Structures are given as structure tokens and as C-alpha cells.
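Fold this sequence, please.
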Amino acid sequence: FIPDLIGKVVKVRGTVTSINFRPAGTEYYIQDATGGIDIFASTTSFGSFGIGSTVEATGSVTQFNGLTELQLTSVTPLGSAAPPPPQVITLSQLADGGAGEAVEGRLIRVDNVTITSGSFPASGGTGNVTITDATGSAVMRIDGDTNIDGTPTTAGTFTVVALASQFVSTAPFDSGYQILPRS
């Protein structure tokens, strides 16, 4: 549950599948046919990208609270492409014990979920709700950079398209899988 290439400089190409989750910096998820990764920098000097932008990103492989990230040194825009379709999963595929590692960084879709605890944060806020489907439960993190904060908490059953992410502070980093809707 620690990246094989941690500390190594790598170059990846992929299609942007998220909004910028760090407007005071750079944080996008990108994906290709083999997987997805969070690209990160504490500055905005790398530009902004829309969903469907294709980029080549270079940086060091790091890990932040279990999440594999690419700490950027450069990003080159390559054009645009249709974003990959979300991979349909169930919440049991995000369970502790490392189940979520297979989809971390990818755009996913979970059908027939309900919110079982928590509520959407006020406008500009960030917070967590617990969602459940027939197979299990998971944290859905509502980021203040989306258009979800400040809206009424969804009632009833719904489908969510989101990024599979992780936030856990202690080894072995095989838990804490969560989803980040982008809108």
C-alpha cells in the first residue's frame, strides 16, 4: 500500500477527469487506460485544465495520507479527448483491507446509494457524508470547490460519479478509501 516508485521522478500522460480540487494550487486527477493518479502542486503555475484535457505530467511519486500523488515539476497540455467513462463499482470495492486500492485515482460510478449520515456543508465548506449501497458504505467527501456545498443534502436513492480517493494517516494505508464527486 506504498507506491513502488515512491520518490522516483516519472512522466505520465492522461486525460483530466476532475475539477481543480486546490484552486490556491494545482490538484487534478488524470487517467489513462491503465489507471488514474492525483497530480498535485502547491502553486497555480501549472495552469488550469478542464475535464477532458489531455496532459503530460512529470514529477515525483509521493504519498499523502495513503493517496498516491504525483508532485508536479511540469505539465504539458496535449489537447483534449473524451474523458474516460466512469468505472461502475459497488461500495464493497472501497472496503478496508486494501479493496479500494484497485480503483484509487480512477473516475467511478456508484449506483443506488443513499446518504445515511451527515449533510452537505455550507457554501464554501468541505465535509463528509456517509453513503451506503446494498454492499457496504463509504465516505463521500464534499469539497468546497465543487458546486455541491451550500446545496440541500440529497434525499433518497441516487447515482454518484466521483473520483476514488483515500485519506488515512497511519500505515499500512489499506483503509480510508473515499469518493470525491466533482459536481
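The chain has a mean pLDDT of 96. The first strand starts at residue 9 and ends at 16.
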